[in-house]
Structure formats: C-alpha cells, structure tokens
Amino acid sequence: MTVKVITDSTSDLPSDLAERLGIELVPANVHFGDETFKDGRDLSADEFYERLAHGDTFPRTSQPSPGEFMEIYKRFGKDADAIVSIHVSSKLSGTYNSAVQGAQEAGDGCPIEVVDSQQASMGLGMAAIAAARAANDGSPVDEVAATARDASKRSVCFPALDTLEYLEKGGRIGKARAMLGALLRVKPIIIIRDGEVQELGKERTLSKALARLEQTARDLAPVEDLSVLYSTAQDDALRLAQNLQDLLPDGKEPVIARIGPAIGAHVGPGAVGIGLLRASP
Amino acid sequence: MPIGDNIGGGDLKAMFSEAARLLSANVDPVNALNVFPVPDGDTGTNMHLTMEAVVEAAGQVGSDSAGEVASAMARGALMGARGNSGVILSQFFKGLGSGLGTAAALDGDRLAAALEAGREQAYKAVGEPVEGTMLTVIRAAAQAARKTANSGGSLIEVLDSVSAASRESVALTPTMLPVLRQAGVVDAGGHGLAIILEGLRRAAAGDDASPDEVPPPEPVGVGEHEGMVSGDFLEAAEEEIYGYCTQIVVEGESLDVDGIRERVSAMGRSVVVVGDDAIANVHVHAEDPGAVVSLGVSLGVLSRVKIENMDSQHTEYSAARRSELEAGPAAGRVEVLAVSSGDGLRHVFESLGAAAVLEGGDTMNPSVQDLADAVEELESSAVVLLPNNKNIVPAARQAAELASKDVGIVPTQSVPHGIAAMLAFDAQSGVESNVERMSAATESVRCGSITTAVRAATLDGLTFGQGDKIGLLDGKLVAAGDDLYRVLTATVARADPEKDGMVTLYFGESVSEEAARAAADVLEEEISGVEVDLVRGGQPHYHFLFSVE
After folding, report:
1. Which of B24, B33, B40 to mutate to test the interface with A (most CBs of A within 10 A)?
2. Which residues contact A64 (CB under 8 A, 6 or more apart)?
3. Can you tell me the ipTM of this complex?
C-alpha cells in the first residue's frame, strides 16, 4: 500500500529532507501588501528576512485555499492508495480547515485523512517525519494516520525570540500576551502547547536563553527525534545542535531547520528554537 | 433603478460586484473586530480578497444564466478563498451555486432555496460549527429568506428581510460566543457577511443613497464594564447553549435523507443532514448523542462518529467568570508586592506583573505595619513579597507573620535584584515554587549603585571627599572619584560582565535622559561585548542603579 504524507510549509521541514522522505509540502501564502508569495517556492528565507528587516510593509500569512488542497490531493491521489495530510494547529491557522474542505472537494477517488497536529514549525515537522517513516515502511493508512496523531501529541516546539513584536502584530500571541509591555529588553521563550502559543519564560541574554532551551530539551528526555530551528542565527542553532547531540539515540543527528517565511513572519529574525519528539512512554 | 423580480446572470453579477465594492469600503472596520478564531485582524481583508476572486470568476461567464454565473462564482471562491472566513464564504458560494443549479433566472423563492443550500454547505464546512460566527448569520439570512419567500415576497422583499435579519443576528453574536463577549465586539466574519448581503440588497433596490460606511451593530449581551457579562446573562445563556455536537456518517441503501432530517430534528438543534440514498452526513447539537448514534445504526453502517461536548468552552468561560464575580479577579492567583521608589522603577515592576508597589527604600524603610497593610490590601490570598533592600528584609519577614495570608519572601537585597526575581515570576504557580524560582533567578545577578558621598571618609580601603561619586557593588564600596562616568564604568567593570553580558542601567531623578544615554555609550565603549539596556528608574539618591547578568 502506498500512503502519501502531505504537510504544509509551516512545518519548516527542510526541503531536501522532505524530498528524501517523500513528504509533499503545501506552501502557505505570504503577503507583503498586495504582493503574494508561495512560502519557500517563490520567496526564499533569505529574501524574506531581508524584506522583513528593510521593508516598510508588515507581512501577513494565509493558508492555502481549499482549491489548492483539492488540486494537490487529486494530483497525488493518482499514484497513492491513500493520503495522510497533517497540518499546523487549527488554533493558529485555517490551514487544517482548508485541507478538510479540499479533501471533500477532491471527491471519493483516494481516501484522505486530515490530521490537526496542534503544533507548528518543527513540532509539526517532527510528526510529519514520523508519519512518513511509517508510510515508507509500508504501513496501512490507518497506522500512518495513527502515527501522525500520536507523534503530534509527543512533539513539542519552543523557540526563544528576539522580540514579541512579530507574534503580536500577526495576532498569534495567545497566552504569551502577559509577556508584552515589559519595559526591559528580554528574550521571550514561547512554547506551542494545547495548539496555541504560551509563555515558557523570559531571559535577559541570548546565552541564558539558549541555556534555557537546552535545559528544557534535557528535561523532556528521553527523546526520539530532535531538531534545532532558526530564522537568522545559524551559528547559534549549530552550537545548540552540537550540545544536544547526546540526547539522541546513536546514529541520529539533529535536524537543522530554517524557519521559513510563514512562521518567520510571526517569530521574526533572531529566533532560535527546538522541536523535538519525545520517546513513546 | 431597482431590478425586476426574475433576474438573469447579468443582474446577479452586478449585485455581487456591488456587494464586493461595499465590503471593500468596510475592510478596516471589519478587521478591527477580528477576535475569533485567530485575532490576526485580517478577516475583512480575507473576505474582500475572496469576494474579488468571486467577482472575477463571474466576469468570465458569457451567458446570462443565473445558474452559470453562480457556479462560476463558487469555483472562484474555492480557488481564491483566503483565511478561515474566506473558506466558510467559499462553501456558502458552493451552496448558492448548487442551490441555483441550472436555473436561468432568479426570483425570491429561488434565492431562498439557494441561501438554504448555502447554509447547509457552510455548516458542513466546519468540523465543529461554532455559533456566534458567520455561520449564525448565514442561518438567520436563510431563515428570513424562506419566510419572506413563502409568504409570496418578491426578490427585493426577500433581500430586504435577509439584510435586516443578518444585521440583527450579527448584533446577537456576543450572546453565543464567549470570546466576543470578553472583547465586547460582534463577530467580524458575521458582520462582513451582513455587509455583502446589504450590498446585494442595495444593488437590487437601486439604493445608491445609503452611505458606504456600514458600521457594525451594537453588541447585545455585553455589560457596561468593557465586555463583561452579568451573572443573569450567564444563566440565560446557559439555557441557550447546551448539548453535544454530534456528527455521524451513515452508509446504507435507499436512505431517506429528508426522513432522517425530520427524525434528527426531534433530537436537538442546529440540524444539518445532507447526502443521498447511499450515504448521509448528519450533524446535530443534541442533549443525548446516543440517540443519534442509535438512529444511525438502525439505518445502516456508521462510517464516522464524532461527538464533542459543546458546553465545555462555554462552561469554562462561565466558571471562570463566575469565580471572578464571586471572589474578585485575583482569586487563586499569586500576586507580587514589591518595595521600591521612583516612578520609573514602579512601572518596571508593574510591567513585569507586580500587583502593587509600596513606596520605600534606603532612606525610607516602610514599617512592619505598612508592609502588612499592603499585603492585606491585595486581592489574592497568596502573596510573594520583594523587600528589594537588605534593611527591609527583616520587617518583611515580620509582616509575613502578621498577615492573614500565605506570604512568601524572596529576600532581594536591592531593586535590580528584585527585578531579576520578577522576571522569573509565574502567576500560575504557587507561592512556594515562585519563591524558589525567583530566588534562583537572582543568584547569578550582580547589582550595584552610584551615589554621591554625603561626607568624606575612608571605607573598604578607598578614600573619598564629600560630594565625590561612589560606586557600590553587591553592597561593597568598589570605586570613588569626582567623575560620575568614570566611577560608573569602574563599578560595572568590577562586576566582570561576560562577553554577551547584559547591563541594565536605571537612571535616577538626578540624571537627565541625555546624560544617561551618554553613560550607556561610555559603558558599551569601555567594556567590550556588553549590551546596555537603559531604563528610566526615577529613583532618588542614586544616580544609577544597575544589574549585570
């Protein structure tokens, strides 16, 4: 049985890894004023952060339309026996809703399971990877979907941000709102919990924030899979990945993921974080 | 010029372009209402762009068939849908399209049928239909259309009733959706849809005198106090919103969809049953979801069952609001009382979540009674006290014993210490865990101050004259001299900041902002790698207070 795993670009899955695992990434839309870009397709992360830093219009993001999902499901439904489509938390984005509509429009040809990961960025990415591995092992669709749901519950994502400004402007600040308005320069650390953005803590300096991320990852051990994500500070991400190597089972390397435009519009430049999959109890 | 009662595709196009135009004139106010489901302030933009796709698709139809134009609009909406609101709108258009079918012309009755199909499709579109949203407005519009059409109303009369009913139902959205009540607004998507329907009415009636601005109706069910709800209202609403959102998919042979709908209607509200003779999709808000499932089993094979307690969101809000009404907003949370002087420092504490700041410091130690009174004045019965001065710590301990509340003390030695502790405060945890967490946060933080010597002396091996500036680090004299900047730099340097260290510099009432900025620049120049966060403290006596972390 061939099961195709589909996710969206808010997973921040590196495209080469997605390709290797056979995961299709549906691009979210990024809008600068009247200009619309397909996340990761016609707007690279570098170009995006450049515009974010120097442009005067604040970017907005929107989910792929139901019609776009319909077309993708029809395209992949031809060669696959079933599709498992796992997406960013429905509390943060309408992507899940769009995918459900798209699946209905696609008709009865190929069964489609749409999963709400309640996660974002590599929290979602980790779950998509787990689902794709199950699919590549030849598991039937129910099992792949069950893996996607189970991995979603075990995955967490917690970035340290340079500023809350972007999260607030984009309307995704959720319960981390309490951190706003501090008169001091702080590095807010957020976590996606119960499908929404919550506060994990705040630190004054980057090195303390990175140490906090590392400690939080260790507190969540044992870990099955781990990724380090960054918007602009690659060196910090690489160092963090190196420090956390010992948390992973032998032979596994942390995934280094660039935060793409869709998530980057909400976390801003200078964000560094961890997405990890806790081992099954 | 009003349109006739039996219109073709050309008139339909004109009506929807007027609707799109009217919406585009109201995008910003609709955006401003946006709190549900994601408060990203672009519901108006998303609906406007979806409508543009609708109008563009309609424009490509050559024929004058109303049905053809409606199905083109449905396709346009499907491909161009943006945002959650756009997706629901696209399903509404899909229903309109299928409701009109191949009909060449549209009259009041057909419009009612199309709106009813739009309603069914829109409800089907969302996994868990939430009332108090665009869905509610669609439902009200379809209901009004049906009623007017059944009593023989013309197309224009149907549109009149649709526009009026949708506006009324927008006003009622806060009675159904807690987040709207909290925010004291009506639903953005609902209002956007009401504007579209009003646009259709205006185009049909040839009404070009009404102003382009369509302000949202006054929200109903919202109390005087910024979106707060009265206890009476909660009770009324609890009777309204109830039950389980139950969805089943039944597969069988020669299913009777209308018959199923009739039987399900007896089991609850918001009933949507769609399908054909082989498969039926049933949605109902029922008190007893078991009865719905049993009905499904008796009809065929259940291929999907989904039951969700709709009350949970509502009861959660009700319970929270009730306990607020009964015990005050701070009940159950931990509050922080900080001792500090200077308006800038007060603001810093407040911005980090301190519930109260008691004026006091070096030359004005608050008494045990002052501290105990301030503790009692807080709303919460669980308090963390930050004395922020080593001389106030003993009084704080006595006050904690006097107070009737659960008081924990973080023995902060200085104001910057207290601020470091405040950064680790978590209102959701208890007093004890906060004291532990906040104390730990102060450990790696070094604090200092720069003041003017009131008399000459030799202290800690340093000699200084009256009027000299002196620098203290962690309570110990480390620098003295007549140059404020030099003393500051020497004192901070003694704290040995790390490479990416953060120096937070609070300038006092004796220092101008300009002079403070210059001091920050000097620090960043002289001590390599540090970042200075300059904050107005407004404190007396100390030119500068600082922390190094």
Report:
1. B40
2. A8, A26, A27, A28, A29, A95, A98, A99, A102
3. 0.80
